[in-house]
Amino acid sequence: MKRTFLYCGLAASLLTACNKEFIDRPSLSGTTTGNYYNNAEEVRGATSTLYSGLPWRNYESRAQDAIGDVMSGNMFTYTDVEYLNFTLSSASERIGAAWGAFYKIIGYSNVMIKTFEEKKAAGGGAAYLDPAIAECHFIRGTVYFYIARTWGHAPIITDPGETALSGNFNIPRYLQSDVLRFALEELKLAEAGLPESDVPGRLTKYSAKGMMSKLYLYQKDYANAKAKAEEVMNSGKYNLVSDYNGMFTKSSMNNNEECLFSIQHQLSGDPWGTGNLKNPDRGAANLRTAEADAWEMYVPSLDLLKEYEFGDLRRKWSVMEHGWTNPNWKPQRVNAPKYNAFMANGFKYDTLVSADEGGNLNATRSNIAKYFAGPGKSFGSDAVLGQNSGNNVVLLRYADILLIYAEATLAGAASTTDAKALAALNKVRARAGLSPRTSFTIDDILHERRVEFAFEGDYWYDIQRQGFAKAKAMIQKQNRGTATGANYITTFTEDKMYLPIPAGEIIQDPELAKDPVPYYK
């Protein structure tokens, strides 16, 4: 029996199920291809680990916020100031965390692909093995897409077993164009092998088509981006949900009709590693209770707040500001009579009263509502256990497909009045309570993407893909300061368009410090 047969069971045994109906499975201790992976349930139990919060944890918890929203100017923080001011180094904790998470997920995908292919070659059922292999290709392709956007040139590893046995760990960086090409090839394999439909939360062909459209847009391949987005739109399988805020704050809305791909979370038993950890980092300090931690590590930036158009409903769905209310939330604290009296009739965000009376006054006079589930079940919100909530983290949703289609139709032109592109854009605006546009430019699209996907870790990549000159202009216009003092970036240079390789990785693999080389010969 080949040693690679054991890797998948070992990887999977480190992870627990995210949702009883979705990915429950038995222990894989001692698993080999000879005694396991004999039916769809066993195989889907293994691939379910790729959706779990456990392998994604070190990316989605803080690294996603620091890279995608702090660096893009959407969030203010006193913690990750190196991302706020573009002074980060290769020793940054978030860089190392994201890199480690991504390559761990790739490692799991690699091992599963090899294991399932060997099982299939040994006579295993293609009907359940092929879709599982396609799931792994989707995850591997998506993660390499993230890596290419984050670091640019990067290593590509497809067989960790072979690498380990060879003893040669000096893997070079490959050209970003080749990393993107590899990611696209993976997504094409996923598209070919995934089913048309599956249970909510599982990947389908349309998940792959949607991620491909996003990758094509990043490459400025507008024709293919438009075509793939249109295939998703024409499928009739997706729609915008009316409860925008609930999509991020209510576990009952996990895997809704807007979601094409989400990291799956749970809140039952011991949630460590499987719960959503965004709750305390975003929660207003005056919502901390015995059930829910809240220390507002990240808050909305002043620059983002001024981006919202008058009447945009996404502002109150995404941001807490003075006067924001939730009558269902009634947090209470021990030995806090003033606080308890203030909160007794429902939560009101107040920047005028003192903290002991229930008020909150931070650097930007605001807090993030998106992904904050609330003060706890006893106090009228979704269940929260300390730092954990049960809300999935959405990585691709239908609103993105609509805006990709609109931008791909624009295709670099100054503006467009294309009817179908306008219909896609205006569907997103209509949910937000805004009037329809009769034409749009790239800046209109970037505005829409910024407010639609605020605090979802995506806006940095929208800035980056504009190229250095425009990215620099966009960043230098942003006020990254506080209510008591503005802060503008005046030293943005081209080397800051991508993150540095983690210092520890270069020590272990000196090839990573050298110029990139082609992956495809």
TrEMBL record:
Pfam families assigned: SusD-like_3, SusD_RagB
GO cellular component: cell outer membrane
Domain named SusD-like N-terminal: residues: 85-217
Domain RagB/SusD: from-to ranges: 305-515
Cellular compartment(s): Cell outer membrane
Keywords: Cell outer membrane, Membrane, Signal
Broad class of where this protein is predominantly found: membrane
InterPro entries: SusD-like_N, SusD_RagB_dom, TPR-like_helical_dom_sf
Family in the record: Belongs to the SusD family.
Protein name, as recorded: RagB/SusD family nutrient uptake outer membrane protein
Source species of the chain: Siphonobacter curvatus
